[in-house]
Design brief:
By secondary structure, this protein is of the alpha+beta class. It has one domain: Aminopeptidase (3-Layer(aba) Sandwich). The protein is 34% helix and 37% strand. The protein is built from 4 helices and 7 strands, in the order βααβββαβαββ. The protein has a 7-stranded mixed β-sheet with strand order 1-2-3-4-5-7-6. Helix 1 packs across helix 2. The longest helix has 16 residues. The chain is globular. The chain starts with 5 loop residues before the first strand and ends with a strand.
């Protein structure tokens, strides 16, 4: 864990641009690709759509007033649209300059503690199979691989954590 001055707070609509920037930079660094500011518009829309869903939860990490990372998820609904005892972690994104500083662990711990207190039994997520950094983080936090999926051109791993 780092001695960085990290502050956690809820995500607001005013954070969308900063979250999209973190998402774009993290994906570009992970994929060793160049980052395009145009992609920011797409990421902003994805994040906004997720935040507008019912039963969404989120938290961001600030370091010296700058968004260093965020976690965003939602309730998993059954076929009748009712919430279940499972939550979906949709995004855990950390700006590349903060990788390895404990921010991902801090945000995951926030999610686990909050969900356990609310009576949630499981947290599920999908991650690209080749994202070794993320897979290692989830496994360190007790997530178990429960399935492998092939979606279009990418192999995904489904993880589940029992709280």
């Amino acid at each position: 864990m780092s001695a960085l001055p990290i502050v956690l707070r809820a995500v607001t609509k005013d954070d969308i641009n900063a979250l999209a920037l973190v998402m774009g930079q993290a994906i570009a660094a992970r994929d060793k690709a160049s980052w395009s500011p145009l992609a920011n518009v797409v990421f902003m829309r994805i994040i906004w759509d997720e935040l507008m869903q019912l039963d969404t939860w989120s938290q961001l990490a600030l370091v010296n007033g700058q968004v260093a990372g965020f976690v965003l998820g939602s309730a998993k609904l059954d076929q009748q649209g009712q919430t279940t005892d499972t939550e979906k972690l949709e995004f855990l994104m950390i700006a590349p300059q903060y990788w390895g500083k404990g921010i991902g662990s801090l945000l995951l711990n926030w999610a686990k503690e909050g969900h356990h207190a609310r009576g949630v039994r499981y947290i599920e997520l999908l991650v690209q199979e080749n994202n070794q950094r993320a897979c290692a983080l989830y496994e360190r936090h007790g997530f178990t691989r429960i399935a492998q999926l092939q979606m279009e051109r990418e192999a995904l791993v489904k993880y589940q954590l029992t709280l």
